[in-house]
Design brief:
Length: 250
């Protein structure tokens, strides 16, 4: 039984009741819990895991890490039993740390913002990597055309991309997520999907208003660009054919 990923449909839901499907206790009060549904975002796609608590009538389980098991489709909640006991089939209350999630959503959405700022400035860069953790977030691109990669050129790039990003934040562009059947998608969208997504029945697409086409994404987002808040590009550097943009959301 796959875990129902409730956070995918409602990213502002930080409490939920769920049922324990399996529960394994390890040494030092550590445990792994699987539920029928969850609001804990499992680490992946450059976005860190949610943290929080799971409570039963007598028990308190502190969730340190949620991981998706790709073979079973189940989210494994790893953490420490703080008090009491838990049992299979028991109903439990989930509480996600909302402040941490909001920061993760802002940092992840800022990655999309950078992609679209670059796109709208027609800078020939193709995204290759995103790391949206609070400690040192960055995105990486490879050049697909002529770009001035001297330090003066990179400084100008930094200034232009940051200015465009700030404009997009001020424009409060909506960021929406739609899950579609693959067969219902337009050919232009379908052709841009990675191999894995092209073989799935459903695909979750994030649409950033103003972007030419939506892209597949499993992360959590803010609802419009203004919620990204105070956004700063810390550094633009080029090394080993990768252009890295380090940024922060204050
Ligand atoms: Zn995303």
């Amino acid at each position: 039984m796959r875990t129902e990923l409730v956070y995918q449909n409602d990213m502002n839901l930080f409490t939920l009741t769920a049922k324990i499907i399996s529960y394994i206790v390890k040494e030092d009060s550590k445990a792994v819990m699987i539920l029928d549904q969850t609001i804990f975002y499992p680490q992946g796609g450059g976005q860190p895991s949610d943290v929080g608590t799971i409570k039963s009538q007598s028990g308190l389980f502190k969730v340190k890490m949620a991981k998706m098991n790709p073979e079973t489709g189940q989210v494994e909640h790893e953490g420490v039993i703080d008090q009491g006991i838990f049992a299979v089939d028991e109903e439990v209350s989930l509480d996600v740390d909302g402040a941490a999630r909001l920061l993760h959503s802002r940092l992840h959405s800022a990655g999309h913002l950078l992609d679209h700022a670059i796109q709208s400035l027609s800078i020939p860069l193709k995204g290759t990597k995103g790391y949206h953790f609070p400690a040192g977030p960055y995105v990486e691109y490879i050049p697909t055309g002529d770009i001035d990669l001297t330090s003066t050129g990179l400084d100008l790039l930094k200034k232009n991309i940051e200015t465009r990003s700030h404009e997009m934040i001020a424009e409060k562009r909506p960021i929406t997520v739609v899950t579609s059947k693959l067969e219902d998608l337009e050919t232009t969208v379908r052709e841009t999907l990675p191999e894995k997504a092209r073989n799935a029945e459903f695909v979750r697409l994030v649409h950033f208003e103003g972007a030419p086409i939506p892209g597949p994404c499993g992360g959590t987002h803010v609802t419009n660009t203004s919620e990204i808040g105070n956004f700063v590009i810390k550094k633009v550097s080029f090394k080993a054919n990768a252009l890295r943009i380090a940024y922060k959301c204050e």
